[in-house]
Amino acid sequence: MKKFLILAALSAVLLSCGGNREQILKVYNWSDYIDESVLPEFEAWYKAQTGEDIKVVYQTFDVNETMLSKIEKGHEDYDVVCPSDYIIERMLNEGLLLPLDFASIPDEINYIDANTAPYIRQVFREINPNIDANLYSVAYMWGTSGIIYNTEKVTPEEAGTWDIIRNPKFAGQILIKDAPRDVYGPVLIYLKQEELKSGKVTLQELMSDSSDASLAAVEAYLKQVKDGVLGWEADFGKDQMTKGRGVVSLNWSGDAVWAIEEAAEVGVSLDYIVPEEGSNVWFDGWVIPKYAKNIKAASYFIDFMCRPDIAIRNMDETGYVSANGAIEVLESQIDDECDPIDLSYFFGPEASAVRVNPVLYPDKSVIDRCAMEHDWGKDTDKLLAMWSRVKGDNASGMTYVIIGLAVLAIIAAIIFGSKSKKRRRKKSRR
Question: Does residue 378 carry a pLDDT above 80?
């Protein structure tokens, strides 16, 4: 029914525009990943800047590969999409992206150039050594992978190592993201500590390491972990942490922010840490696919998303961290209850000691031990096969109990009309 309504709405828009595709902007984004009130504001802003009418047709997806398949195989004419870092890399490598039309954007409203954080610009240059991804993509949100933990049952020292997921003290209380890419990297970083310390390998090299030896090592480790896992979860792990059913969760920083706030309201104390061995950083970014029909409007849309006030609104609505480096964004996040941290890498020298939530923005010392994930290309199938072997064909009884409870909670929410917070975006990063 939902798909029918979307298609009907699209047909109505096409008819109202007389079939003029130049007046339509098709945007394809993650679910619950924008303040949708900014969409009509963009239409008015675009009209004011260009004198041209535009209508945004907005659709959502929940899995990177779903989006990619529609463009790669179906040649869908989306004008703007928001893939994750490794998919941006894959699309760039396969010639599926068009460059942003910077020439059409006047300098005085070029929010992309004015507000791209130095760190983000540097990381995007590393996506492809031969092509500057900054010309084809603009980061939207970003974060880290780490450990959410119950502070009443787990110490910061215990949570400060990835090996906590193998700690028998917490057996049966450990939740792990059902996201092989985001689990493989941290585990490999843990297993390769000696090589990292001796300089035999770098974090960036590990993020691209799809060798059979490394896959086997990670698989062996995760099979040791398996018996203590309460659940391999796509989106219910943070809920279980807020209810005290789990005490350790390998998760994303964005989900950690939501879980910590939600748990505090019911008297459960949670915190988040990036383990001392190092971790991966992840990004989602705006791109213009190969089959786009409205490159100019797409470039303007991406630029509009980089306007500081719009970035702040999207950040507040979704609970994730904007990749926007404008000083206004930093000022919006100042919290005098937080200890000073060094965000000079992101906002410049003046941000070397600012009071900001470190779960949202990692201190420079944390970023220095993190690296971006990379696309494995055809070797991705090896990762997925390994993950399937680790989890096995049959989920544990507790996993089914958790899933059942989650389903009941959703049904109850629908029946009683309860409204959950927005910091709950479902996301699958394979």
Answer: yes
